[in-house]
Amino acid sequence: MTTKTEKTPEKRLEEAYGELERAALEPDVKIAVKAILTIRQAINWASVSEEERKGRVDAAIIKYIRASSAQSLPALIDDVLRRLPYEKIFWRPLGDFAMDVYPQGDKEQWERAFRRVREETIPLFMISKKFYQETEEVTP
Amino acid sequence: MPRNAFSFNLGPISRTLGDPPDYIGFASLPVHEVVTALLGARNKDEFIDWLWHDTFKALFHWGIGNRGRKNWLHVRDGDMRRLASAIQVSAERAIRHHAHSSPLLKERDTVTNEFGASHLGASARFVQLTFKCQPAASTMVLRLAIVEAFLRALSEVVGEAIRNLGLPFTHVSYIFDGRDDPAWTVDNVANQYQMSVQGSTLTILHVVPSGHFGQVQLTVDLTGKLPDLRNPQMLTLPELLTVYRDDLTVITALPLFIPDPDHAVTEIRNRMATLAVDILREIGVATRHKRQIGNEDLLQIALDEQVEVEQVQDKTVHVLISHPYTLMGDSSLKSRCLVCGSPIQSGKGRYFKAGKNVLGDLFSDRFTDLEHVAFEEDICPMCLIYASSDNKKLLRGAVAILAPSTSLRAPLSHRLIEQPRFDQAGRFDPNQPMVKAGMTLQELVLLTILSRRIIAGLVPFDTQPGGAMTGNIMMHRAVRGQSGVSVVGKYLPYSGAYLVFDPAAVTQFFRAVFLGEDLPGKALYDVWQEVQLTAYPFELNLSPSFTMLLELRQNADLKAHAQMHTFLKVKPTVVYLSPDSAFYVLVDNSVQERVDREYVETWRLLEHLASSAGLNRYEFIQALLSGEDPLTAAYDVARPPKGVAIDPDTLRMSAVSNISKLGEVMGQGTPEEIWNTFIRQREMIRSLCQEHPTLIYFFTKPRGG
C-alpha cells in the first residue's frame, strides 16, 4: 500500500484549502471544489486496496453525488459520506475547514456551488485532484 | 496530417484582355494555341499554323508602339521562319496572323478574345448536347453515360478528321524552359527556341527568360484516344473540345476542317446512341421496365425525346447555357414527370402501362416515399429506367458520383510572380497591377480541364480497364485477413466521371477526401482550399468545381437500403474547392445533411476526443450532442469492450483522465489554467454540437442501440 507519513489528513487538507484559496478561480468554483475535497479527505485510504484506488472509490463518490437528492451543499456532503462504505471512511470531526461549505454572506455563491457540484461533478472532481491526491495521504 | 492544395502549371499566359488590356487571360499558351487550332483552322496548313502562332509570346517582350500602345512583340519574322523551316512548313500565315490582310480567320471570331466572352466565336462551329430534363439524382447516372457516349463519339469524329488532315504528327509537346542570364538579349533568348517533328510528336521548345520559372511540359494528344489519368500534363481531344459543361448541357467545338458539319453532327448523334447502349450495359444499368409500353429500348425513347444534339446556331453564351430550360419551356409538353418534374410529351400511358396504383406499378407495392414524388400520373423515360426493378448498384443505395463541371466561384485572386525582364513597356509593372482575371472561352476550357484533374486527384482508388467502354474503379481491402482488390465502381474515361457504388468504398472516399483521413500510399489533396494555378508571370487562386452526388449507407440495413429509392431524397451538388465550400450528403435512406468545413472540423474534433479516450464514438458524440461536457460524456459512456475483464469504474476514471489531458478538453497547467481551458472548450464544443445536431447520424449505432 502506498502511503506517506509526512502529513496528517488535516494538514494535507489545510494545504489544499490554502492552495485553493490562492487560486484565481471563481468563488463558487472554489466552494464546489472544497465540497469535493471535504468528501475525499474523509476517505480512509489505508483501507482502500490498490485496485480500488484505480477508480472505484472516485467512481463511488461521483455516483453518490449524482444520485443524492440533498438540497444543499452540506447535506449533499453528508449524504455522500453516509452512503460510502462504513469501513472506508474516517468518522471523525471534519474540523473548521468544513465550515467553508456552509453558506455565509452571499448565499447565492453557495447555491451556485451546489449546482456546480451536481452538474459538473466530473470536471470538478478532476480539478480537485490538482489540489489533493490520495497517494499523498496518511494512514493514521 | 495537413494536406496540400491542388496546384497546376500548364504553361505561361497567352493573352491579356480588355481595352486597355488590363485583365489577365489565365488560360495557358498551349491551351490557347490548340483551342485556336481546333476552332479556327480550316485545313491542315492552318491547323499547324495555329499550333505555334504565338510561340514567341513566352519571351514576354513588351514594347511601346504607335500612339503609346503597349504591344506584345511576339511576331518575330526571322525566328518564326527558322522554326517553320525546321518542320518544313511556311511561316508566312503565322507571321501575319494579326494582320488585317491575314488569310487566317481572326482569333476574335473563333476563340473570342474579347473580355467577358458573351458570345462564342462567330466563325467557329460548336455542337451542343442538351438534356430536356431537370438535373435530378434519378437521371444523373443515365445523363453521365450519355455525356460519355457523346464525348467519345465527338472525339472519334474529330480524331478521324484530324487524321484525314494528314498531319506529320499526332502529338504536340509544348516545353517551357526557364533560363536566365542577365547578359542575354531578347534575340539571344529567341535564338534558343526550337521546333521539330520527331516520330509522331511536334515539339516546340520555349525558353522563358526567368530565374523563377522551372520547366513545364504539356503534351497534346490529337488522336481522339481516351485521356491518360496518370499524366495530368497530357491534354486530349475530349478535354480540349469541351467548351462548357454542366449537369444539363455540354457545349463542344466542332472544327471547321470537318467538311460536312451536318453529317458530322448526325454521325455523332448516331454513334452516341450506339455507344450509350454499350456503356450502360457495362455499368450495369438496364434500360427496360416491366411495365413499359412496347418492347423498344427506353434509352432510345429517352434519346429521341429528352436529349438533343445539335449544331449551335445562336452563339450567345447565356442562351446556350439556358438552352435546357428553353427546351423544357416548350408549351407542347403538357405533362410532368412524377419523379423529376421534367416536362414530357403527353399524358398517362405514353411510356408505361399502369393501373390505379401508379406508384406501385412503377416502383413496387412497398413504395412509401410519397413525399418525394409529385401528384402526376406520368413518368419520363429516363426516370422510368431509374424506376426499373432490374436496376441495382448504381441506381440504388450508397453511391459517390463525381463529374467535371465548368463553373468557377468568383472572385479570383492573383499575384505577380515577377515583372518579366523584357517587359519594356511596363505591361506587368508591379506598381500598376492588372485589374483582375477575365473569363473567355479558353478559360472555360481550362476550368473543365482542371475539374477533371481535381476529381482524378480526389478519388482515392485506382482505375484499370474494365471493358471496351469503361474502366473499373478498384479498392484495396482486407477480407478475412487477406488483402485483395475489388471492383467498387466504374470510370467513364472520356467524360472523366467516377461512379462508385460499393458502400465501403463510398465511406472510404468520404472519410479520406472530406474528413481528412489518411490512406497509406495515397497523396490526397485538401478540398477546403482554393486551387493554385501558376500561369507565368502570375499565380492565381481559383475555386473550380465538380458535380457530386454522395449517398452513404450509415445506419440503414444493407438489403433494405439497396432496394430503397434513395435517389428521390438526394440532390447532386456543385462543389467548389474553397474554404466555404458546402455540399449535400444523404447519410442513409432517411437523413440528408449539408456538410461544410465547420461541420467537418466539428466532426474531426469529436472523433478525436472519442478515440483519444477509447470511447464508442456514437455514444460519446450522442452524449455531447445532448449537452454533456466531454469529461462527463466520457464518464457516462465508458464501458469495457466485450470479453475484456476490467473493472468498469476503473475504466470510467481512466477514460476521464485520458480525455482530460487533451488540450481540447483541459490540458496541462495550473488549476486555474486547466479550469479556464475546460470552461472555454466546453462552451465551444457545446456551441458546435448545438449547431450540428445531425452529426450523430453519420456515426454507426452500436448494435442494439
What does this structure look like?
The complex is a heterodimer of chains A (about 140) and B (about 700). Chain A is an all-alpha fold and about 140 residues long. Chain A has one domain (about 10-130). Chain A is built from seven helices and no strands. Chain A has helices at about 10-20, 25-40, 50-55, 55-65, 75-85, 105-120, 120-130. In chain A, helix 1 packs antiparallel against helix 2 and helix 2 (about 25-40) crosses helix 6 (about 105-120). The radius of gyration of chain A is 14 Å and the shape is globular. Residues about 135-140 of chain A have low confidence and may be disordered. Among the domains of chain B are: about 445-595, no CATH class; about 600-700, no CATH class. By secondary structure, chain B is of the alpha+beta class. Chain B is globular and about 90 Å long. Chain B is built from 21 helices and 29 strands. In chain B, helix 5 (about 140-165) crosses helix 8 (about 260-285) and helix 18 crosses helix 19. A seven-stranded antiparallel beta sheet of chain B has the order 20-21-22-23-17-26-27. In chain B, strands 8-9-7-10-11 form a five-stranded mixed beta sheet. The two termini of chain B are about 35 Å apart. Helices cover about 30% and strands about 20% of the residues of chain B. The interface between A and B is medium-sized, with 21 and 23 residues.
